[in-house]
Amino acid sequence: MAKRYDIVIVGAGPAGLAAAEAALAQGARVAWLDAQSAAGGQVWRKDIRYGWPRQAARVITEVVNHPHATWMPQTQVIAAEQNALLLQNEREGWRITYGSLILATGARELLLPFPGWTLPGITGAGGLQALVKQGWPLDGRRVVIAGSGPLLLAAAVTAKRHGAHVLGIYEQASDAAVHGFARKLWRWPGKALQAAVLRSQLAGIPYHCGSIVTRALGEHALERIEIDGPHGTQRIECDQLAIGYGLVPNVELAQMLGCAMKQEGAHPCVDVDTSQRTSVTNIYAAGELCGIGGRDCAWLEGRIAGLVAAGADIDASLLRQQRHARTFAAALREHFKLDPYIHDLAQPDTLICRCEDVPLQALKDYDDARSAKLATRCGMGACQGRICGTALAELGLFPRSGQRPPLFPARLASLGELASSSETEGSFS
Amino acid sequence: MTQVRINIDGHALDVPAGISVAAAIAQSQRPFRRSVSGHMRAPFCGMGICFECRVQIDGIAQQRSCMVSVRDGMQVVTDG
């Protein structure tokens, strides 16, 4: 029989952690899962050399070892039913049921196509950070960091710390936009301090604004890139390019559960009330999947969701802090708005769907994701359209189609755990 | 740092315990995989979203190498 928990939390980043800590303190029995092998999410990912950031280490240890917490690492939700989830890890699939569910599935990077973007040696910016923290070798490698947003600074710090020769950071936002943002930072003293610390750790690494990587070249792996900047085009020889254009919410599970969405730019995020309730009874959402808001915002929303789900009251100051954290996200969006030129970088022969190798020119006759998928296989591969679907939405070609189970490629043995398999028949891509 | 011995495409390799299989493959300088039309690919998103880093681990195909940590005696087969 499926094991029952008072509260199940999906995602072990700041929002999930805060929710777990708050709910456990109220006496709830909590199950807590994440696709990664260690808790912390992306922003607090454990570094093989340096461990977790200090503030994260304390709460992670506390929650993982709590007698009422069941920690399920390397576990993904494959499908959902009424008050139940079908889970899968490396070895098996199983069902659990819950009283309340808190979604803290975070965000992924916005990865956009440009000529050469599939070459080995090119990763996301946060992507490189994640790889390096788990031992990816960078010692002495020439690394360029590019794309947009404050994540580029954090990625550069991590790369440098692990021995990379960081050639430069290339931010697409203009000099005026970035300085305008810096001038507003005093309103969020914690963020201002964080920025100052990052800058000091990056001494000697040039930071270029208004600069866009237009092309990557190489025989079998990355050899050089071309950058358009305020002073024209330049070519840079490098071994590794870490390029990310910000973050997009991971809403696939929430969509499958039927939670109402709202749009933030070209991408959906989960619509919640001030208590982090979604439109579905007993399902809460906290952090990045409710709109990109950053680590502090995720922590506060996770705490709110954990308290409400456990039946506790929330005080006004917590809500006030959360609203303030959300205004930071709004400022970020405004100042790091993408230059429309980035949307036009892909050429007719640039691959859009990396799983099925579908070029842009094959998609031009379609105006929705589903017909394009059926005719070209775009979005039909292992990533299930997470990369190409998000990119196509950002490029304004067409929005992503809805999510159907299984949420990730699943083994047949796992799917056998589904109570009503007929509902999912024929839906395996 | 403790070392573990793994095997990548028939080559034994000693790597620090706790690193990802993706990192171990990169250290071995082995290719990861070829795309459906034969292009070389390697880890891209770094966090289990894109599936570009998938390899066979201990007989199970299509494992995301960025999501799995090395274990002593692990057998990895790439698709390069």
What attributes does this structure have?
heterodimer, A: 429 residues, alpha/beta, FAD/NAD(P)-binding domain, 3 domains, seven-stranded mixed beta sheet, five-stranded parallel beta sheet, globular, B: 80 residues, mainly beta, Ubiquitin-like (UB roll), five-stranded mixed beta sheet, 10% helix, oxidoreductase (chain A), Oxidoreductase (chain A), FAD/NAD-bd_sf (chain A), BFD-like_2Fe2S-bd_dom_sf (chain A), FAD/NAD-binding_dom (chain A)
CATH superfamily grouping of chain B: Beta-grasp domain
* Class inferred from helices and paired strands of chain A: alpha/beta
Shape of chain B: globular
Query: Per DSSP, what share of the residues of chain A sits in E-state strands of 2 or more residues?
Result: 15-25%
Work out the count of structural domains of chain B. Answer: 1
User: Uncertain runs of chain B with pLDDT below 50, 5 residues or more?
Assistant: none
CATH class descriptor name of chain B: Alpha Beta
Distance from first to last alpha carbon of chain A:
29 Å
Shape of chain A: globular
Percent helix range of chain A: 25-40%
State which percent range the strand residues of chain B make up.
35-45%
Number of strands of chain A: 21
Quaternary structure annotation:
heterodimer
Main sheet overview of chain B: 5 strands, mixed
CATH topology of the largest domain in chain A: FAD/NAD(P)-binding domain
The rounded Rg of chain B comes to 12 Å
Q: What is the rounded Rg of chain A?
A: 21 Å
Helices of chain A, by number, come to: 12
Biggest sheet statistics of chain A: 7 strands, mixed
User: If you average the pLDDT of chain A, what whole number results?
Assistant: 92
Protein name (chain A): Oxidoreductase
Pfam families (chain A): Pyr_redox_2
Keywords (chain A): Oxidoreductase
Organism (chain A): Dyella nitratireducens
